[in-house]
Specification:
Length: about 110
């Protein structure tokens, strides 16, 4: 049997530990380190500017230059994504604009490696 003094001390210590638990509990997670921005294909700004002007010959020229500038595997992968999105835009624009259709045909051949 425990004495009343021992029981009081055990209860007090247990109470202090339980009372302090929320103060020393889980800490907020450290802010995650910012990840690198998505890679941008070389020449993508030229492609976007030409698309905005609806200068489809310049779009094809900028895509050819961007293809030549993409030397690393990451850049080549990013270029393929750019090529795919531009081809999709040109395909939809080509329904009404024959110049866009012609550019789409050229871009499609570029994507096929011809």
């Amino acid at each position: 049997m425990r004495s009343p003094k021992t029981r009081f001390c055990c209860t007090a210590i247990l109470g202090l530990l339980l009372g302090a638990a929320p103060l020393v509990g889980c800490k907020k997670a450290a802010a995650p380190e910012p990840t690198a921005a998505a890679p941008i294909a070389p020449g993508s700004s030229d492609v976007a500017a030409a698309m905005a002007k609806k200068d489809y010959d310049a779009v094809v020229g900028a895509l050819v230059k961007a293809n030549e500038a993409a030397t690393t595997p990451d850049q080549q992968e990013t270029f393929r994504g750019l090529l795919k999105s531009v081809a999709g835009e040109l395909r939809s624009l080509g329904l009404e604009d024959p110049k866009a259709k012609e550019a789409f045909d050229t871009v499609s051949r570029l994507g096929a490696g011809r």
